[in-house]
Amino acid sequence: DPNEDTEWNDILRDFGILPAKEKPKDEIEERVLHLQKEAEGKTKCDYFFCLLFLVKPYERMNLEELKEAEDDFDEADRKAIEAYRQQRLQEWKCLQRRQKYGELREICGEQYVKEVTNAPEDVWVIIHLYRSSIPMCLLVNEYLSLLAKKFPEVKFLKAIVNSCIQNYHDRCLPTILLYKTGEIKGRFIGVAECGGLHLKVEELEWKLAEVGAIENNFGGNPKKDIMMTLSVRNISAHKDTNTKSSDVMKPDIE
């Protein structure tokens, strides 16, 4: 095939044995056709914006030249550019927010209201009240650190329990509280509710997802042999402890 694009045919063309290759279609037309194929799945605004700058005479201008040529933009151009700018701005804000956290941070009781209760309304806050002398607490901290990296849009916090609640019993630790819009949406209190001494990170992830704080693709509880209790209960539960459960919602931060 003399029109086939091969190295051998290129050599024959160089020696004049084959005629010169047919000129491709107009470069702009080719680019527009290519753009149309790639436009599937993209937003209409993305496609219109790209097409606009392909076919306009200022397509190869730099920023300074474009600013000087701004008076030549018609109303449709301006609307398309502004729509594209707004779309990209929203995408950027969304990305920034999703990447805002990404780590398990330590706070103290004095920061509780600011960091937890007054967190942005669209942000889930997961806080672990712990004591470093309890092995299960250290395990939960390790797993929450991993999950914080996996779900950077969620605020993961930890606090030594005595800095938030005085005289809190060790049998209530670990304590994991899940907040949204300043209210407790779920909680896991004690070793059993947090998943037991043989807790796996996948099991903890599943528990948090069941409350709605994070999203995952688990089809069900990864811990098949033990039924773990989801703690989304009324704050009046756990009256058998000497610490009022209202203290959990309103830590002593004086």
UniProtKB/TrEMBL annotation:
Gene3D superfamilies: Glutaredoxin
Source organism, top-level taxon: Eukaryota
GO BP terms: protein folding
GO CC, alphabetical: cytoplasm
Residue ranges annotated for the Phosducin domain, each copy included: 60-239
Regions that span the bilayer: none
Family: Belongs to the phosducin family.
Protein name: PDCL2 protein
Species this protein is from: Chionis minor (Black-faced sheathbill)
Lineage: Eukaryota, Metazoa, Chordata, Craniata, Vertebrata
